[in-house]
phosphate acyltransferase (Frankia alni), 357 residues
Amino acid sequence: MTRIAVDLLGEGLPFGPLLEALPTALDADPRLVLILVSPAEGVREELARLGISAGERVLLRSATHTVAGGPAALRQVRSRRDAGVRVAARLAREGDADAMVSVAPVESVVAAAQFTHGLLPGATRAVLAAIIGRQDAGVVLCDAGSATGVTADELAQSALLGSAYAALRFAVEAPRVGLVAPRKALLDPARRLADELLRSLDLNYAGPCTVESVLARPESAGQDRAAAGWSSVAGSDRRLEVAVTDGYTGDVVLSTIRGVSSWERRGSAGGTDAGLDPAWGTLEDPDVRGGTIVLGVDGIAVHAEHTRGGSVDAGAGGLLAALRVASLAVRGDLVPRTRAAMATLVARRRALAGLAG
């Protein structure tokens, strides 16, 4: 069985619509056990309405505090032991759950994962990874918004962690990694150093790439590779599976995807054709950053977007996506994979420092 602790409190938005996803999740995966972290009141009644009784596959745990996003996230996560995101993280750390999923603001999920689970040996910060692009040709975006500012070593961490995740997610042996930059002529000092470091690591590194080449969707076989989602690096023989950047740029990329996809759907609803694929976005729903996973921590933590004014379908879809990602990470031994990836970087650091072994 795969046990996932699900924080439904988040920042205090109504959780009723999220419960609509539970019958689908439980029916689709008979090995799934959900530990719902929620207020004491109203949950059993909502579950009963959906035909779910708390028991063997749906367990309840109480939490009393919510958390806010933004700059206050880390302080609130540390000070509110009974916050939903902290309770879910603690259940995973203490072995009562195999992973955690939370609808708290993404920065709160990152803070709880790093504070509760701790970083993997060799990691200096947590990294967010999101899937962008079509489901049949997705790209792991690292960092997808965990922090601003970046060093060459942190870009290398993102590349190694993202490669380990992409290998599991896309079932490829050697994911192709690109370093996102405006263009080669505009590489900043951190990216220039990162480019050198990435070439020295055991990675299938393709070199610098543009956001345009990462986001371009596959078209018919007769079209140009660069316009069809292939790496723009000379000599590339297949598309990228991992795009590495800083958290600020990654968050802008995700916001752009959601905005353009929302515009495209409004255009389609009005009878116009913007020429964009409705599946172009993060996971199945471009409005939901469902399934954004925290890498570099000694545990599995996944964020499911739960926005104010979001539709029932969007909220439920985000939670379903996050549950699928968490289950895959547990069953695919993602933490040991990422631990081994970080060991590669530790060995490289020692070599650069002139240390043996």
In short: The chain has two domains: 1-117, 122-295+333-357. The first strand starts at residue 2 and ends at 7.
